[in-house]
Structure prediction request, 443 residues.
Amino acid sequence: MSTHSSTYNSSFVHRFYRWMMRRWQLVTLAIGVFLGVVFYGLMALSQQPVHITMLMTALDIAQERHIVEAFEAQNPDIKVDVIEGPNATNLVEDLYTSSFLLGGSPYDAVVMDVVWLPKFAAAGWLMDLTDRIPQEELKDFIPETVEGSKYQGRLYRLPYRTDSGLLYYREDLLQQVGAQPPETFADLINISKQVQQSNGADWGYVWQGRQYEGLAAMFVEVLEGAGGFWVNPQTLEVGLDRPETQKAIQFLKETIDQGISPPGVTTYQEEEARRLFQSGGAVFMRNWPYALPLANADESPIKGKVGFKPMVHAPGQQSAGALGGWGIGIAKSSPHPEEALRFAQYYASEEAQRNLVLKNGYLPSRRSLYTDSQVVAQYPYFPRMREVAESSALRPPIAQYAQASDILQRYLSAALTGRTNPEQAMRDAANETRNLLQRYSAS
Prediction:
């Protein structure tokens, strides 16, 4: 081979080598850029907040948005998507129920009324929180609110608001007739008559008599005060056809028959009762705590004249207020249970509940907040509200509560409006309730 040929071959190999090196550098650079893009993309994705979803009434969203925002500020890795539901709570319950029945519910945090919990838990829709929440964390909660968050002894939600029915009274009208706040059913009737006879008010007592859930809640209080019971959740014994039930109905019927309650009281819900009481038309009112700030508002005719106490009862019995209130559970189908639990724990925390109280006047589920300095400065009556909250009575925590409540409402309404004899109405209600419970226990 000639020298020229060798030189040419060597030069060609050298150029080819440099060309290959440049191509390799470009390939490795491209791979590096690609891997960098993937890496930083994954990093960006990992830094995106986890989204959890819950459904609330439109009114609650408006009043509690500040709690969600405070949680997100403290937990930037979690974004809470709040779905606006109707203001009628039974419709919100229906939306939750439908989504669970269809499977793959879109909700992670489940905001629920105390009476929904047995159904949701019995259906297996909620995560069991018993072993996830230390007992130490529950010590500050009013015991009744914790019991209302359990089903068959297991914890399924964290309560963040409570409610309890109570008896409002006009302090000025009682002073005019020299009466102390009533303790018994008879006391309330006698004082009402005295005030009516002195023309202090047209009516003695207003309450919720319409056929709806408020009727069941109101009746639980009177029934407990008479020494009776609706359904024993442990034994499923039904007590609606016992003498104590007739004593409770007799008290309510007497207020109507003697003109102490207006004839239209059997159509009243909370707001009808509140408006009549707040206008000065009644001496006593059964209602929830929300009515107190309204009664003492600047434009209220009875501002500064309203007292409250636990519900009246039969001699030798105890007062009781129906337990209401809200809590948050975790959907068992949630893909983000840990994040949803962090959210529920924050919502039920002392900080969040204090802010709810200060902004909205809600009753907290934590005992310490009833004597909290900030809360008492704004609501001086709060220490006394704890007594009401701690005398609460649970509506039966049974899986078939909605059906049992419908039965009670129908027959009780018939008895109070005179469409059916009270004894017969409650016998029929008791038998229908027993059949309901037996049908489900056998299935």
User: Anything to note?
Assistant: The chain has a mean pLDDT of 91. The radius of gyration is 31 Å. The chain has three domains: 1-48, 51-163+325-393, 165-322+397-442.
